Every structure is written in structure tokens, then in C-alpha cells.
Amino acid sequence: MSLSPAQQREEIRCRILRMIDDNPGISQREMASHLGVSLGKVNYILRALKDKGLLKAGNFLSSDNKKAYLYLLTPRGIAEKVEISRRFLDRKKREYALLKAELKRLEEELNRDAVK
User: Fold this and answer.
1) CA 84 to CA 2: how far, in whole Å?
2) Per-residue b or e along 2-16, where b marks 16 or more CB atoms closer than 10 Å to that residue's CB
3) DSSP calls for 46-109
4) 3-state DSSP call for residue 29?
5) Fewest CB within 10 A of the end CB: N or C in the chain?
6) H or E stretch including 37?
7) Mean pLDDT computed over 92-114
8) What's the confidence (pLDDT) of residue 67?
């Protein structure tokens, strides 16, 4: 089942928010690699999340790599992650139900054709 462009963007945002929640020190390069998207796209999304007040980014004070950031979800960011995750879960449940029904139809068709 193909996703609309809006669903694709939301899924990437959701996955980024979850990655940051799990690992605040994750790099943009690591996020891009895990998501299979460009570094520029991750940078664009992170900037948008920051502009919306969903994310804070700051340098590691003790890091030797001064380009390393620590990403933190704001309370609004946590709420957004929960809401996006809820919509994602609902969509996946609907997809699962459709797939399950399609599998049942295929099995019935195969069983019917095997009897012939």
C-alpha cells in the first residue's frame, strides 16, 4: 500500500521524533542512514521541528566534536510524537485488516481452484 506524500512526511517526522527520544545524541547522518533519506532532508525536518517548538538542539558542552548536537523533545514535541504515533498505529491496523482479508480471499481462491 503506497503512502500519500503527506503520510510519508508524517512517517519520517514520527521516526525522527522517536529516534531522538530514544537517543538524544544521534547525529543527522545516523538519522538519514536509518531512514534511507538524504542528510539535507533530515536537516530540513529538524529545522522545521525546531521552528515549531517541538525540538531543542544544543551543543554537547564536553564533546571534542563541537558540531555534535544533543536533541531534546519539548513537551509539545512529546505530545506531537504521541499523536503522530497514534495516527501511525491506526493506519497500520487498517492496513493489517485489509491485508488479512486479502490473504483470506487468496487462500479461499487457491483452495477452490485446487478442488477443480
Assistant:
1) 18
2) eeeeeeeebbbbbbb
3) HHHHHHTTSEEEEE-SS-S-TT-EEEEE-HHHHHHHHHHHHHHHHHHHHHHHHHHHHHHHHHHH
4) helix
5) C
6) none
7) 94
8) 60
